[in-house]
Amino acid sequence: MIANYEKLKEKVQELAVLGSISNVLGWDARVNMPPKGNALRAQQSSYLAGIIHKKITSREMGKLLSALNKEVEAGSLTEEQALNVRKLTENFEKETKLPTTFVEEKSAVTSLANQAWVEARSIDDFSKFQPHLEKIVELCRREAGYFGFTGHPYNALHQLYEPSMTVEKLDAVFNQLRPFLVNLADRVIAEGKTYKPIEGKFPLDKQRELVKKVAGLLGFDFTAGRLDVSPHPFTVPFCSNDVRITTAYKEDNPFDALKSAIHETGHGLYEQGLPAEHFGMPLGEAASLGLHESQSKLWENHIGRSAEFWSYMLPALAETFPEFRSVKLKDWMRQVNKVERSLIRIKADEVTYNLHIILRYEIEKGLMEDNIQVKNLPEVWNNKMQEYVGIIPDKNANGVLQDVHWSMGAIGYFPTYTLGTIYAAQFFAQASKELPLAERVAAGQFQDLREWLREKVHRHGKKYSVDDLVKRVTGSPLNAQPLMDYLEAKYAPL
Ligand code: CO
Predict the structure, then answer these.
(1) Residue 264 annotated to the active site
(2) How much distance in Å is there from the Cα of 348 to the middle of ligand 1?
(3) Are the CB atoms for 350 and 181 separated by under 8 Å?
(4) How many Å separate Cα 129 from the centre of its chain?
(5) Is the pLDDT of residue 1 over 60?
(6) Distance between Cα 48 and ligand 1 center (Å)
(7) How far is ligand 1, taken at its centre, from the CA of residue 378, in Å?
(8) Does residue 276 have a pLDDT over 90?
(9) Which of 8, 47, 329, 339 could make an SS bond with 188 (beta carbons 3.0 to 4.6 A apart)?
(10) In angstroms, rounded to a whole number, what is the distance separating the alpha carbons of residues 392 and 132?
(11) Cα(395)–Cα(388) distance, rounded to whole angstroms?
């Protein structure tokens, strides 16, 4: 007789294979597919999603898990097995809490909402999106009800991305961070140091070569991954031995592609560092979205925007592009770390970025509480932009309509970006205590940092809760102080 745990493992790994096929299709759609392939690809993906959902929520799976939970209680499983069973049970319960009719309704509503959002943004007309967003907010409130929650209903939605994080904890760190960032941005911008932007045309083939070299230097394993081109850079794993990252190139600015590639390399290193022997099981998966983002932000900001990194990289850049031969490190640092009052989140600098996120978080919470009405969103948005970032959008397309998330029904996602920057600063501060990082980075040596992250973070998968993991590694759970210290030290003198 095959033990129940082996049966479970077989089933879950079959699901992981299906999930990886779905990821191959998604990657191909964003990297290779011609526009007319869209219709069939949508069918293929939803067909697979249907099969996966059916298998995850099957009665057989439920029976198997309840038998295994008895074995956990009886103590007949190993610690690792028990952990996998517990996490898979949580996942099963979550998946089965939503009635099929609700899942179908949400899928239909968001599909229309996404089309409406694309149109509303292109013609700058919020009223085209408003009724769709009203439906989505109503669906999200119902969804929170199905999942159940303690405390704020927002917890139920946010925890889909960041398990065990709560509004109370988010409020505490965001209320600490927001006034600090507003003040720091004011100070840095008032200082108004100028620099001469580097102008030129930088051939894409040379950019590609350079970007690939840097990703490899940081430790991305090209025998277990690829770097391709897509308009919006992303990372998608098929398994830890095949991780796909992308970047986007601009002819007039080589830093753009490099910065995105370093960000995605950070995500890619996490995926490549997950334990392959736990493929498909919780122990083989990333701990949370916030933690994932911490890996990309650590490499992008703490390495890729640091003076040490550029003291090493600037000569390499000048070798590839003669325009950079006369560029001084100090001026280049000001350029890659320019702080400005800008409208678009994804283009925001390190200092103002989290203000864009906190604004979205406060709005989402208000929508869930019914303290903010969808019809008033442009006004609420613009007021908060004025107050936090110090600039009012010229049009809604550059304001409340700029992000895709709400049209997809993903309320509760945004805070993971800021959590990523907070965890990144915590990890980096700790790594700097344990390793001679400044020296190594200035010498173009990144393997120590990569191994440190692999050992402390990557290889554990979901073994620890995020709070426990961050505490194990840094001695403290979620804590915004290292981020504030880092930003103050870096930007005040720039
Ligand atoms: Co990211």
Answers:
(1) yes
(2) 14
(3) no
(4) 25
(5) no
(6) 25
(7) 26
(8) yes
(9) 339
(10) 25
(11) 18
264 Cα: distance to centroid of ligand 1 (angstroms): 6
DSSP string, 256-294: HHHHHHHHHHHHHHHHHHS-GGGTTSGGGS-S-HHHHHH
pTM (two decimals):
0.95
Neighbours of ion ligand 1 (CB under 5 A): 296
Amino acid at 365: K
413 DSSP assignment: -
Contact 220, 268 (CB under 8 A): yes
pLDDT digits (tens, 9 = 90+) for 222-267: 999 999 999 999 999 999 999 999 999 999 999 999 999 999 999 9
Distance in Å, CA 297 to ligand 1 centroid? 7
Q: Is the dihedral of CA 203, 204, 205, 206 positive or negative?
A: positive
Residue owning tokens 């879950």 = 12
Counting residues of the chain whose pLDDT is more than 70, the rounded percentage is 99
Question: What is the rounded distance in angstroms from the CA atom of residue 265 to the CA atom of residue 269?
Answer: 6
Amino acid at site 186: D
Residue of 10, 104, 105, 264 marked catalytic:
264
According to DSSP, the residues that pair with 226 across neighbouring strands are 244
Q: How far is the CA of 377 from the centre of ligand 1 (A)?
A: 26
Q: How far is the CA of 263 from the centre of ligand 1 (A)?
A: 6
**pLDDT at residue 46 in the model:** 86
Other beta carbons within 10 Å of 205: 8
Q: Which of 430, 458, 437 is nearest to 268 (CA)?
A: 458
- The C-alpha torsion from 230 through 231 and 232 to 233, rounded to 10°, is 40
pLDDT tens figures, 284-333: 999 999 999 999 999 999 999 999 999 999 999 999 999 999 999 999 99
Helical packing angle, 447-456 and 254-273, nearest 10°: 40
Our CA angle for 122, 127, 130, nearest 5°, is: 105
The first and second tokens of residue 151, run together, are 């405390």
Amino acid residing at 479: N
**pLDDT > 90 fraction of the chain, expressed in percent and rounded:** 90
For 117-163, the three-class secondary structure string (H helix, E strand, C coil) is: HHHHHHHCCHHHHHHHHHHHHHHHHHHHHHHCCCCCHHHHHHCCCCC
435 Cβ contact partners less than 8 Å away, ≥ 6 residues apart: 448, 449, 452
Query: How far does residue 427's CA lie from ligand 1's centre (Å)?
Result: 16
Instruction: Kindly state the DSSP code that residue 242 receives in the 8-state scheme.
Output: E
Q: What is the mean pLDDT of residues 387-412?
A: 96
HEC letters along 448-483: HHHHHHHHHCHHHCCCCCHHHHHHHHHCCCCCCHHH
Per residue, what are the HEC states of 185-199?
A: HHHHHHHCCCCCCCC
Enter the DSSP assignment of 299: I
Residue 184 · residue 491 · CB < 8 Å: yes
- Of 124, 141, 11, the C-alpha closest to 64 is 11
Q: Cα(349) to centroid of ligand 1, in Å?
A: 14
The maximal CA–CA distance of the chain, rounded, in angstroms, is 73
